[in-house]
């Protein structure tokens, strides 16, 4: 989805450093200090326009959330929501998800969300998929022992690839949903993409997997 350029987006970001950072390296190992109180930290890599991360923060005040997004025009939409909500348990980070070890210390994160990531369907682009093993290694590095990865997509090919990738990496598959919206899963919070795809009757896939400390190069 292409987003229109928002006039003054960069200026708005710079004007709200208490909610958003474009370089979080100075907070590496100290993210709890950015929040009102110390609580488990959940991050979403690729937050888009932020419906999921904002609604999760509203629904779970006992968890601290960090939305990570590379596109300025997307994260400004999240910032606008946060400027209205003023959620004490939500922070935003405008950085590349491939560089998370620059911004988080080892074992600082309790859970990682990947929602409707770009499927990069061509084989030559496999390394760009957010469930490729180098990304999994990055998540595991910043995550606590036995932390979880929660993944949702409408793309069957990416879902099958991701199942194979996390299995090969040595993660434990906790649970799989092949048609989330017809299941008995409770508490699902939809992203903008999820609303769009499910509204067209498309199937939504979901998995939860646990990191087991396997070292893969």
From TrEMBL:
Pathway membership, UniProt: tRNA modification; N(7)-methylguanine-tRNA biosynthesis
Binding site for S-adenosyl-L-methionine: 44, 69, 96, 118
This protein's UniProt keywords: Methyltransferase, S-adenosyl-L-methionine, Transferase, tRNA processing
Entry binding sites for substrate: 122, 154, 191-194
GO MF, one annotated term: tRNA (guanine(46)-N7)-methyltransferase activity
Residue numbers spanned by region Interaction with RNA: 124-129
Top-rank taxon, per record: Bacteria
InterPro entries named among the record's database cross-references: SAM-dependent_MTases_sf, tRNA_(Gua-N-7)_MeTrfase_Trmb, tRNA_methyltr_TrmB_bact
UniProt EC number: 2.1.1.33
Gene Ontology cellular component terms for the protein in this record: tRNA methyltransferase complex
Reaction catalysed by this enzyme: guanosine(46) in tRNA + S-adenosyl-L-methionine = N(7)-methylguanosine(46) in tRNA + S-adenosyl-L-homocysteine
NCBIfam families: PRK00121.2-2, tRNA (guanosine(46)-N7)-methyltransferase TrmB
Function: Catalyzes the formation of N(7)-methylguanine at position 46 (m7G46) in tRNA.
Family of this protein: Belongs to the class I-like SAM-binding methyltransferase superfamily. TrmB family.
Protein known as: tRNA (guanine-N(7)-)-methyltransferase
Organism per entry: Vagococcus hydrophili
Highest classification ranks of the organism: Bacteria, Bacillati, Bacillota, Bacilli, Lactobacillales
């Amino acid at each position: 989805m292409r987003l229109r350029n928002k006039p003054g987006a960069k200026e708005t970001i710079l004007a709200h450093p208490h909610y958003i950072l474009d370089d979080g390296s100075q907070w590496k190992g100290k993210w709890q200090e950015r929040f009102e109180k110390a609580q488990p930290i959940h991050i979403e890599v690729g937050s888009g326009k932020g419906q999921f991360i904002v609604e999760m923060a509203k629904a779970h005040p006992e968890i601290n959330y960090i939305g990570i997004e590379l596109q300025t025009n997307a994260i400004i939409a999240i910032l606008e929501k946060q400027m209205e909500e003023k959620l004490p348990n939500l922070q935003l980070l405008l950085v590349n998800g491939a560089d998370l070890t620059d911004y988080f210390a080892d074992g600082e994160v309790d859970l990682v969300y990947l929602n409707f990531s770009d499927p990069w369907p061509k084989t030559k682009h496999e390394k760009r998929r957010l469930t490729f093993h180098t990304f999994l290694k990055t998540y595991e590095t910043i995550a606590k022992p036995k932390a979880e990865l929660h993944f949702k997509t409408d793309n069957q090919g990416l879902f099958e690839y991701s199942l194979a990738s996390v299995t090969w990496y040595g993660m434990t598959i906790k649970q799989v949903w092949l048609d989330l919206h017809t299941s008995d899963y409770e508490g699902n919070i939809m992203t903008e993409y999820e609303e769009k795809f499910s509204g067209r009757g498309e199937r939504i896939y979901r998995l939860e997997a646990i990191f087991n400390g396997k070292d893969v190069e």
